[in-house]
Known about the structure:
Elements: H1 3-41, H2 46-62, H3 69-88, H4 93-117, E1 121-125, E2 136-140, H5 144-156, E3 160-164, H6 167-172, E4 180-184, H7 197-204, E5 211-215, H8 220-228, E6 233-236, H9 241-255, E7 261-265, H10 269-281, E8 285-289, H11 295-302, E9 306-310, H12 318-326, E10 336-340, H13 345-353, E11 358-361, H14 366-388, H15 398-415, E12 419-426, H16 429-436, H17 438-455, E13 461-466, E14 469-475, H18 479-494, E15 496-500, E16 503-505, E17 509-515, H19 524-540, E18 546-548, H20 552-556
Parallel strand pairs: 2-3, 2-4, 4-5, 5-6, 7-8, 7-9, 9-10, 10-11, 17-18
Antiparallel strand pairs: 1-15, 12-14, 12-17, 13-14, 15-16
Helix pairs in contact: 1-2, 1-4, 1-5, 2-3, 3-4, 9-17, 16-17, 17-18
Amino acid sequence: MTDSANNDQLTSKLARLRSAYRERLNGELEVITSLAEEAQTQTDTDEAVAALRQKLHKLAGSAGTFGFHQLGAHARKLEQQVQAWIDESSPGAVFKLKGFQDELSKLATHLGTDETASSSVGVESAAQGGDSDAPTIALVERDGILADYLAHQFESFGFRVHSHRSPQNFLSDKTGNTDLLLLDHRAGTSESTTTSTDHWRSLLAQVECPVIFMGGHEDFYVRLEAVRAGAEGYFVKPLNIPKIAAKITRSIRKRRQGGERILIVDDDPELLEHLDTVLTHAGMVVETLQQAPLLLDTTSEFQPELVLMDLNMPEVSGDELAAMLRQFEKWNNLPILYLTQEQSQRERTIALMRGGDDFINKPVSDEYLIKTCRNRVRRQRDMLQAIALDGLTGLLRHANIKDALETELQGASRSGNPLSVVMLDIDHFKQVNDTYGHALGDIVISTVGTLLSQHFRRSDRLGRYGGEEFVAVLPNCDARTAESLVNKLREAFGEISFVDRQAHFSCTLSAGIVDTRSFPKLMGEQLLEQADAALYRSKQAGRNCVFTAFSSAQAVL
Length: 557
């Protein structure tokens, strides 16, 4: 299908979705007005007021997604008023509702203003197709039109989306694996009641993948409910699609990380075998060590994410070994937990001062051991990622991607496998910032970051080099394979349409590639220079293309 046909299909589909939602709004406003009148005229108003609040809640959550921001904001304000009356449960609620009519009439006014401004900001794209390796999102959203619209946008980022109208529908669907569940906070509940924590705990106990909640409003108790239900995040409608796509990508990548790497140092062979068995069975990668003199070599080779250290050993104490590890800057933040029966507070304090982080008291239950190790490693990974990753894109920062290049270059030298380095740049990005502002410019940059994570392999090292420039380090990959990967990314990014009020615009990428087969003697910095020179050729050739750097000998051939 041609780009023109893709764009026509995109425009037609989005127009149908917006038109269907706009037609539904007339009926929604009529129902809201009718419910407000019932609340004033009927003796028992509780049911009408509860239904009114639910309708306003639904309107506040969905309107902004389709560009009706003022309507959605005013609906949320009215919902909060009605909720306050429900919480008060006072006889004066009906009297207050009489003055509510004036505010209610403003909904139609805001609808007209929003239609004139068409003030949506976001991304749109033709669906990217059914990549069998793409992560799968299960989307639970009661509103069919909104569900279709959200699914369409998430597909723009390379996700496969399966939509469901209720959690029960999702749980009964056995068609395949799900990488993440994106769940409407009100899905599966009645129109007049709030969701109970017990309800979600019971329902989500059957869900093995990560869960993210989305809802029409945000407060402390809603977020607490999400936490208690085991959700990894909570996003308020209208959803910031690039932001939540980035969160989903990071959550799935974290889930797909290898098992936690645990080094256990103890002089008791039976205990070592037991701990090894328990943690290995739980999916962790374990190395055991009885001989203290081998500690430094073993730590260097194994690269643990956590050390379990017996505090009291015959020839050397655990705190002495911890102090030795802390002499090396590269292990200064490596978590160290002491395995001990030591009860003396003085001895425990000394052990902590010498480099340990905490204690696991012997004997320790298997469940406690597993959860403690897993939590420590995951928190360590989160901390290292926060330091190493760019906050906007979730990719490695400038210094970290250069370090990753050096590491992968050493590995390629040992293995003899090719390594490719890609330099990418968003074309005419300054014009985007000058025309549409830095907020939308950040959405464009964030979109590239998410697409990079989606289109490249798990083994690839991806970084934001600076501004609108990115670097990809691709181990075991020659220039021709790299070019194929980059072109797929470039085409996917070019199909995305960014939306700002009535303006739609697209961006393109230019790229330069170099591999170690063409330049086997170059160091990391020199490879970056060659990739940058190839990128410059792409810019000179008119942008939105890819050039590969070749050695002078290859150029003659």
